[in-house]
Batch of 2 targets.
Target 1
Amino acid sequence: MPGQRANSESRVLFVCLGNICRSPTAHGVFQALVDNCCLESCIGVDSCGTGNWHVGEPADQRAIAEAARRGYDLSPLRARQVCADDFAQFDYILAMDHMNLQELKSMCPADYRGHLGLFLTFASGVDLEEVPDPYYGGADGFSHVLDLVEAAGEGLLQEIRRAHTAR
Ligand code: 4NP
């Protein structure tokens, strides 16, 4: 597993393009799931973007507002860009869409032993491969993102618990 950590810990990195809409939403939702199960000492959560346009900025106000309506606080999050060291630090690197997954694959070291893939593969009952980019749309796009990442987050948590039990 990547990094020098206690072997009970899994670290999850959510990746989109700007790190201001989809991946911070996934970050906040999944962190809440982890916290609700009292697993914060076992599962680390972070997010980033493949692009650098919004580095240092908070999440998009529409993402913060829609998440707050469901009880998630995205306000402390700040955008950052993915870096080579992320492949040493994270066991699960989960892209929101194929374009960002391709970018991550182009950076991924040959000896990476974690899981690099699409986040929605963990969503049961969802007939989509990608979390649609809500940046140029309205509030309903951000609500749809929340629906998708809540479903995928549940599946991911089950998978991490299953993998941990199987160790
Ligand atoms: P995200 O959405 O990748 O879900 O954070 C976007 C945010 C910003 C831009 C594109 C997508 N942008 O072009 O600045």
Target 2
Amino acid sequence: MSYETLIVETTDGVTLIRLNRPQALNALNSQLLSELSAALDVAEADAAVRCLVLTGSDRAFAAGADIKEMSTKTYAQMFEQDFFGASARRIEQFRKPIIAAVSGYALGGGCELAMLCDFIIASESAKFGQPEINLGVAPGIGGTQRLTRFVGKSKAMEMILTGRMMDSAEAERSGLVSRVVANDKLIEEAMTAATKIAGQSPLAVKMNKELVEAAYETTLATGVALERRLFHSLFAFDDQKEGMAAFIEKRKPDFKGS
Ligand code: CAA
């Protein structure tokens, strides 16, 4: 499938998706979001794809939702079109891991898109922010909820009410990103992590992803009970027998996804 706003390539079980609207710092317009949903549909349906990396350019992961596209919209249009609803749900419901590899600006919808991914690896140049307040609006793809859960109320409230950006060191300190790497190592590091995931049992990967997500959706007791059930259920798969046999036999496991 070909895209105008994305560059998509798959190697060794990993699909790398680059947002590609350089003239607008990868601002998320309707075309980009619908192409991203289509690319996720393709990746979801292809058993050979085990993990995704989502990235932008050195200058911007994405500088937000496209302000020029939104500026003249009415409340009726935003509501009727469920603006951002379908694309956000598509990413939320994607079952394979997605790593956000962030350089430069990740602002507004760009920060929210990174937070919709399973984890974020940032380069030293990354800057995160929810500057919607400067436009007289609020985040619309989960920023008030996810940023608050990830970095805590005080920092989220300050960033959302003042529009202040966070640099990569602060983002790592506050738990928004898993780690910070040199600018020229970002894609290499993200691809290495993705390739590692791609070599694991795809069934165990999906269950682990669901379990970590559950930690944000449920109580501790319910989450722990769910974990125990899924942990037990993993013993129904050949991949568990293979993984444990390979450890005992001191060899690399060959997971088949069965
Ligand atoms: N939407 C549309 N176009 C954008 C854009 C956006 N979010 N961000 C940048 N661009 C465009 C600029 O208009 C400019 O285009 P022209 O050359 O045609 O004028 C081009 O990208 C380059 O941008 P700048 O000249 O502004 O670059 P800069 O280096 O001076 O500044 C920046 C970079 C600080 C990121 C600045 O572009 C900026 O503040 N962008 C807007 C950030 C923002 O407010 N994001 C939130 C959007 S609302 C949202 O996301 C709602 C939601 O939660 C869903």
